[in-house]
Design brief:
single chain, Rubrerythrin, domain 2, Cytochrome p450-Terp, domain 2, three-stranded antiparallel beta sheet, 18 helices, 6 strands, 51% helix, globular, binds acetyl coenzyme *A
Length: 433
């Protein structure tokens, strides 16, 4: 619940005073409501990268980047990551509360029912080159899913219809990812099994062959569970804002989420997990010369960045990175794996945290810094890391789209601009018509 405006701020424009209401969130965050600013004053605001702009009110996720707090529906991420499952977390995010046993069982059963993709869709994979990036394939496949549900592609789906699309997306995203992996290694697709739960089923589709079932390793399932939970939502980030923006035009959920996948793909967002491992490999091949790459990242004449460091809202250690780092160490220890990239990552982090440049800018490891170490230990190829992020973020996108749809305050997303181009001038004809 959001408090009713209790106070106003005064804005003086061209000598005239305007009162703007202050909105206070449940965690006492304050916002100046400028909804009528242009109408009343003729001015707009300019906010590069929307760093100071609240685009909506939301009751899904709370985060305080100054202290490193993250909560889903009020529950601290540390408690969820320790005790919950990805399915239960998805339910919590989408429906607002933890499910009862019966609700969770029914939710889980619906995934079994919707796990396989249509036989015709399997043929799509034949059209992609083996070198195709999984995120491009995933985005195209997700928007194509809508073609199989024409009755659901409408501006105002019912509650039951939204529930159905949500399950479709959550269940099928992992099937599509696993199939795109099989395609990339030139092996036949392996379909889902009815007897397996969400994550084991994914690992089965990834690593079983037509003749041999993959042996599920519980430690891997457990680690993946944590990683997916930690990725499940993160309020109004680039991809989630994209999902809301696209959905605000009354575009359907398949289309909105497909756009979110494209936004997530960027190296500054969810694509960073792939970039981190590739960066560590480059540093390793270069003899482990960490300082050289730190200096490069600090050089204002060089666009190079240390991937996996920095965050728009965290000006403290990302709580997700803390949990993932521990998970990565635990998993490797349990599996008896020695990954030199983990040692390199830890050394790089230590050096970065001691460096003035990173300290002054409050740049800490983010969620993408250690997740790749876990994926590698499971055998997931580097190119698939952003797609793993997409599987994890799916419930957050759905929850935000649903919330946007259900809110009476939603309007089509349509920012303004400050025009900096040429003033009016005449067209000069070339007589080429
Ligand atoms: N390495 C080196 N310098 C950095 C880094 C980095 N990773 N991140 C930020 N900086 C510097 C910038 O150069 C800038 O320096 P300046 O003040 O001297 O100009 C300052 O820190 C502030 O950076 P901005 O780019 O203004 O911060 P912004 O909030 O716009 O960007 C972002 C956040 C995109 C995450 C940025 O920190 C970054 O590029 N990190 C690397 C990519 C990455 O890991 N992305 C994943 C983020 S988590 C997620 O999306 C799931």
């Amino acid at each position: 619940m959001v408090d009713t405006p209790a106070e106003n701020v005064k804005l003086i424009v061209d000598g005239k005073t305007f009162e703007l209401p202050v909105i206070t969130g449940t965690e006492k965050e304050k916002a100046i409501d400028i909804s009528n600013l242009r109408k009343d004053t003729g001015y707009i605001t300019l906010d590069n990268g929307y760093a100071n702009t609240g685009s909506c009110k939301s009751a899904i996720t709370f985060l305080d980047g100054e202290v490193g707090i993250l909560r889903y529906r009020g529950i601290p991420i540390e408690q969820i990551a320790e005790n919950s499952t990805f399915l239960e977390t998805s339910y919590l995010l989408i429906y607002g509360d933890l499910p009862t046993k019966t609700q969770l069982t029914n939710f889980s059963k619906s995934f079994t029912k919707h796990a396989a993709i249509h036989k015709d869709m399997e043929k799509f994979f034949e059209g992609y080159p083996a070198t195709g990036h999984p995120m491009g394939i995933l985005s195209a496949m997700v928007v194509s899913l809508g073609a199989y549900y024409p009755e659901l592609i409408k501006p105002e789906p019912s509650k039951e219809e939204i529930d159905l699309i949500a399950v479709e997306l959550l269940a099928k995203v992992r099937t599509i990812c696993a199939h795109s992996y099989k395609k990339s290694i030139g092996k036949p697709l392996v379909g889902p099994r009815d007897d397996l739960q969400y994550i084991p089923n994914f690992l089965h589709m990834m690593f079983s062959t037509k003749t041999k079932d993959y042996k599920i390793v519980p430690e891997m399932v457990d680690a993946l569970q944590t990683v997916l939970i930690l990725h499940a939502d993160h309020e109004q980030n680039c991809s989630t804002s994209t999902v809301r923006m696209v959905g605000s035009s009354w575009a359907n959920l398949f289309a909105s989420v497909s756009a979110g996948i494209c936004a997530l793909w960027g190296p500054l967002h969810g694509g960073a997990n792939q970039e981190v491992i590739e960066m560590l490999e480059v540093i390793q091949k270069d003899g482990g010369n960490i300082q050289k790459y730190i200096n490069k990242a600090k050089d204002s004449n060089d666009n190079y960045r240390l991937m996996g460091f920095g965050h728009r809202v965290y000006k403290n250690y990302d709580p997700r990175a803390k949990i993932i780092k521990k998970r990565a160490h635990d998993l490797l220890k349990k599996l008896g794996i020695k990954d030199p990239l983990l040692d390199l990552a830890v050394t790089l982090e230590d050096a970065v945290l001691k460096d003035d440049y990173f300290q002054q800018r409050k740049l800490y490891p983010n969620v993408d810094f250690y997740s790749g170490i876990i994926y590698r230990a499971i055998g997931i190829p580097t190119k698939m890391f952003p797609a793993m992020f997409a599987i994890g973020r799916m419930p957050g996108w759905i929850a935000n789209w649903k919330e946007m749809k259900e809110s009476s305050e939603t309007r089509i997303g349509r920012p303004r601009q400050i025009y900096t181009g040429r003033l009016t001038r005449d067209y000069v004809p070339m007589n080429n018509r």
